Amino acid sequence: MKRNLIIVTAVALMATGCKKILTPDEENLRSVEQMYTDPSYAQGFLLNGYRTMPGYYDNSDYATDDAVTNQLSNGYLQLATGSWTAANSPVSVWNNAYGALQYINLFLANTDKVKWAADPEVSALFRMRMRGEAFGLRSLYMFYLLRAHGGFSADGQLLGVPIVTEFQTVTSELNTPRASFEACLQQIYKDLDSADYNLPVEYVDVSATAQIPERFRAITQKTEAYNRVMGAFARQLFNGLISRSYRTRVGLLAASPAFQHASNTTTWAKAADFAAAVVDYKGGVNGLPANGGTFYTNTGEIDGLSNGSNPPEMIWRDNIQTNNGDQEAQNFPPTLFGTGYMNPTQNLVDAFPMANGYPINNSNSNYNAAAPYTGRDPRLARYIIYNGSTAGVGNQVIYTGSASGTDNGINIRPTSTRTGYYMKKRLRMDVNRNPASTTGKNKYQPRLRYTEFYLAYAEAANEAWGPLGTGTHAYSAYDIIKAIRKRAGVGTSNSDAYLEEIKSDKDKMRELIRNERRLELCFESFRFWDLRRWKAPLNESARGLNVNGATITPLVVENRAFQEYMYYGPIPLSEVLKYSNLVQNKGWQ
After folding, report:
1. What is the pLDDT at residue 31?
2. Rounded to whole angstroms, how far apart are CA atoms 249 and 251?
3. Of 74, 453, 515, 518, which one has the greatest count of Cβ atoms within 10 A?
4. What would the mean pLDDT of 293-307 be, rounded to a whole number?
5. Residues 380/353, Cβ–Cβ less than 8 Å
6. Helix 240-255 crosses helix 120-149 at what angle (to 10 degrees)?
7. Which of 497, 495, 457 is nearest to 474 (CA)?
8. What Å distances lie between residue 291 and 298, 321, 349, CA to CA?
9. Signal sequence span per UniProt (predicted)?
10. What is the residue-averaged pLDDT of the chain?
């Protein structure tokens, strides 16, 4: 059975019926042969792979125990409360990913025929770099497909997705089965190997021939030729460090409890090794960026970015947006002229320890329920607006209780919080949304940041070798977590006594690492996927806190309605109905 395809002039540039038909730009309605003499046109196919990458802030947090939203029609809210089906899946990446793979595979099939530059050495370097980018992007999309759609069939097979490494035409067999999860992993690792071979670790200008990496020096010994292709001008394109980062993401996913199966050969030790390659490149434990936890509000650093440079915390980022206030418009409290979309939960607030490092339910914490925000982990005030916090250009005091007398109070208006909290992370407090004097600021969205990979190492190393084990590396899970908590300002008054108490207990360290990951990466679209790969409870009710002076009232804000099979996302129903060889994940209809 063949999928119906649309031929776009002589190029036959289309996507499979199983993988959403593309609508190409008008300038691409040309023959494939024109790629060979027009390198900008050829590169356009590769750029399509960048253009449709999943965004970093997808707000899937709304469907977790970390947040709810006041957008009652939001897809993630509906997903979490019983409307997630194979026909209606906000987390599906199937169509976009396979559409992007069509462009990437067409590009790879034709790169050898393109005259990239008049200088043959420069042309050869461009060919290497762009092929490396394409292999990297192909692995990226396969990772997102595997994360969203990998899972177990009804008969217990651990399955991935169909592997597509060639441009599909009207004569291609399109009714292809899902490959095994392991086969998908190996394809991703293979593509990342190809990316590593063809790309520098980072794009930096060199001043001497000896600084050109050896494999590129075999092509050219001219610094100006190397810099033209592999230098700073190419920053924010896929590079070798990004490749290491995605290898880590893949390894961590594969080693996690949800994907344990005899056919899966990725171990926790392998995942730790992958993460260590990123951590080592940054300089080990001492290389953890000092201000990485406040990347979104390091205003001087953000405003000073130019020429594609990265802050110390960033491995990869999106382009700078100038005079921007979109995140603030969406998430500021109403009195700051925002619509308060992201409402952190009491569940998340309770996950922040005390400043002395002890969890609030520990007898040594000195937590006072009558003053719930006093003496807490400094990250709580940095990431969440709670009753009595200040926010905005005028340091306005925000009162969130239902009797506060302001629009910021619980459920006062459709734009008010439902939980008693507003998100502060991701936002610049020097943005002004007042219609009388609106001002935006420079912004960027992360794609990869170092803290994620320090946490990935801690998680994998603890599972592989215990809290204090190091494998072949110079640091342990304990060392990483100690550095992260010290940076946050946690346990600095007592040498982090709680961490010292549990540092030999693998299970307690696992709990702490997962909690540190929850805090450090909150509102960054990790929690939804972390809960699933850990096979952690999904149905914890989202709670809030109504604070009106001395009267503090706990609230149940939203109940979750996830089923056991929802640890794994579905194959889109439309594809299963069309193609008999596509097996659905267990439980999905």
Report:
1. 79
2. 5
3. 453
4. 96
5. no
6. 20
7. 457
8. 8, 21, 22
9. none
10. 95
Give residues with Cβ within 8 angstroms of 35, minimum separation 6.
Answer: 41, 42, 45, 110, 113, 114
Distance set, CA 323 to CA 123, 228, 428, 433, 436 (Å): 38, 31, 12, 12, 16
Q: What is the DSSP string of 284-330?
A: SGGGS-TTGGGGGG-HHHHHT--TT---TTEEEE---EEEE-HHHHH
d(CA 524, CA 315) in angstroms, rounded, equals 15
The C-alpha angle with vertex 251 and arms to 248 and 255, in degrees rounded to 5, equals 140
Are 512 and 462 contacting, i.e. CB atoms less than 8 angstroms apart?
no
The percentage of the chain sitting over the pLDDT mark of 70, rounded to a whole number, equals 95
User: Which structure tokens are listed for 375?
Assistant: 């003496």
In 135-266, the DSSP E strands lie at 151-152, 158-159
Measured CA to CA in angstroms, residue 134 lies from 24, 131, 199, 218 at distances of: 18, 5, 11, 22
Provide DSSP, 96-158: HHHHHHHHHHHHHHHGGG----SSHHHHHHHHHHHHHHHHHHHHHHHHHHHHHH-EE-TTS-E
CA 449, CA 454: separation in Å to the nearest integer? Answer: 10
For 401, the 3-state DSSP assignment is coil
The predicted model scores a pTM of 0.94
Cα radius of gyration rounded to whole Å, the chain: 25
Residues 6+ apart with CB under 8 A from 585: 149, 151, 152, 153, 159, 565, 568, 569, 570, 571
Indicate the DSSP class of residue 83.
I
- Cα 99 to Cα 310: distance, rounded to the nearest angstrom: 30
137-181 tens-digit pLDDT:
999 999 999 999 999 999 999 999 999 999 999 899 999 999 999
Is residue 6's pLDDT more than 80?
no
pLDDT band at 349 (very low <50, low <70, confident <90, very high): very high
Please tell me the predicted confidence (pLDDT) of residue 32.
87
pLDDT digits (tens, 9 = 90+) for 44-80: 999 999 999 999 999 999 999 999 999 999 999 999 9
Cα dist. 247→38, 108, 139, 191, 272 in Å? 33, 21, 9, 10, 11
**Residue pair 358/498 in contact by the 8 Å Cβ criterion:** yes
Contact 545, 554 (CB under 8 A): yes
What sign does the dihedral 105-110-116-122 (CA atoms) show? positive
* Helix pair 506-520, 477-488: axis angle to 10 deg: 40
Query: Within 10 A of 510 (CB to CB), how many other CB atoms are there?
Result: 18
Mean pLDDT of 254-258: 98
